[in-house]
Amino acid sequence: MDRRLEASDPSERPDSVLHRLMSGAWVAQSIYVAAKLRIADALASGPAPVDEVAERVGAQPAALFRLMRALASLGVLREVESNRFELTDVGTYLRSDVAGSMHALALTITEFDWDPWKQLLHSVRTGETAFELVHGKEPFDYLRDNDELRSVFSRAMTSYVTENGIAVAESYDFSHARTVVDVGGGHGTLLAAILAQHAHIDGILLDLPEVTEQARHELSSAGLEDRVTCVDGDFFTEVPAGKDVYVLASILHDWDAERARRILATCRRAMPEHARLLVIEAVIFPGNEPAFAKLLDLEMLVCFGGRERSLDEYAELFAATGFRMEKSFPLRAAATAIVAVPI
Ligand SMILES: C[S@@+](CC[C@H](N)C(=O)[O-])C[C@H]1O[C@@H](n2cnc3c(N)ncnc32)[C@H](O)[C@@H]1O
After folding, report:
1. Atom of ligand 1 nearest to the CA of 234
2. Cα–Cα distance between 277 and 337 in angstroms, integer?
3. Are residues 167 and 75 in the same domain?
4. Whose CA is nearest to atom 8 of ligand 1?
5. What is the CA(217)–ligand 1 centre distance, in A?
6. pTM for the predicted model, two decimal places
7. Long-range contacts made by residues 6-15, C-beta under 8 angstroms, separation at least 24?
8. 252 C-alpha to center of ligand 1: Å?
9. Are residues 178 and 321 in the same domain?
10. What is the CATH number of the domain that holds 24?
11. Is the domain of 90 the same as that of 184?
């Protein structure tokens, strides 16, 4: 036997580690079903017996017990006594009503990603996205034609952006800015976080018309309707001109170099000399440490035809479009903020 297979903790043996990794699809599906059935919402007020949860969520009790038991083995739930489960801290993020909820993200990973990811082999063999092969159209066209999935997708993006929005609002110096333009701003979570910290700032959110409709609703629920203007637009052609800070959060990674340059060039044309570009992305750093950015990069390969990039690759894109990288700083685990200056 290979001596490396003789680890003292059996779960840390290399073959066990590989086995656990290759079962990731089963884990993702178990979490998806928990999200779809809203099991975490059913447990929001405390531990509950399986029969009661089954009735509430519309599931067969014996099968639901097997799902909940598996989720307890993964640390998402805890079986507090026979047939009675509660949420763990991890599982709490599957509730749909908590700050930083990952409920929509769990739905998206199956309902948006699953079928294209089955064709990762195609993408790796050809370098082409699988999304178009499976759905016959590009992702944002597909979302435009699918109201329910678009709403879930935008809410999923909110899970990524909530903490980063707070981190950007706290760590970037907005003292000289009057107006921040969030280009491709989704439902406005990032902009809302910046405005919440900086009372002197107004915002403009630009996105596709089918998205700004919901953004208007979200921003007005947050009491920001007087401070944010939502603009229907296309970042390949024009963004509002003459403002102070332009944000591109999780935008450039969706696109190949040619289209990323077009987005940057549109921003550059709109920006006065004093303005700053704030790019927020999962930057790729060298090394073999666990890095979510490197998995997200595969998501970009499979679904969007974009990629996650290193700081050097961003510097190249900036140089080609009239910008210079001024500085970068880490936000949360996977995200980095990069500040670029017009030249
Ligand atoms: C990955 S999401 C990021 C959203 C938001 N910036 C965030 O961080 O949550 C990409 C956004 O780009 C928008 N988008 C895609 N194509 C666009 C276009 N041509 N013009 C403007 N927005 C576009 C999408 O509607 C979506 O809101």
Report:
1. 20
2. 10
3. no
4. 249
5. 17
6. 0.91
7. none
8. 9
9. yes
10. 1.10.10.10
11. no
Q: In the prediction, which pLDDT does 3 show?
A: 53
Q: Is 139 a member of any domain? A: no
**Helix, coil or strand: residue 90:** helix
Q: How far apart are CA 282 and CA 331, in angstroms?
A: 10
Supply 221's token pair: 């629920």
Tokens 């405390």 label which residue?
46
Tens digit of pLDDT for each residue in 17-49?
999 999 999 999 999 999 999 999 999 999 999
**What pLDDT score was predicted for residue 163?**
80
Catalytic residue from among 198, 217, 253, 274 = 253
306 lies in some domain = yes
40 in a structural domain: yes
Residue from 131, 138, 140 whose mutation best tests the ligand 1 pocket (most atoms within 8 A of CB): 140
| Residue 108: partners with Cβ closer than 8 Å, 6 or more residues away | 152, 153, 156
Which residues have CB under 6 Å of ligand 1? 140, 157, 161, 184-186, 190, 207-208, 211, 233-236, 249-251, 254
In the block, which residue shows the tokens 């763990």?
A: 88
Domain with 38, as residue range(s), is 3-94
CA dihedral 116, 257, 150, 180 (to 10 degrees): 160
Q: How far is the CA of 154 from the centre of ligand 1 (A)?
A: 9
Residue 19 catalytic? no
In a domain, 99, yes or no: no
At residue 176, does pLDDT exceed 80?
yes
**Helices and strands (H and E) in the chain: how many:** 17, 10
- What is the Å distance from ligand 1's center to 187 Cα? 9
Residue 160 confidence class, pLDDT cut points 50, 70, 90:
confident
Count of domains forming the chain? 2
Helix locations, 186-274, DSSP H: 189-197, 209-221, 257-270
In the block, tokens 């034609």 appear at 145
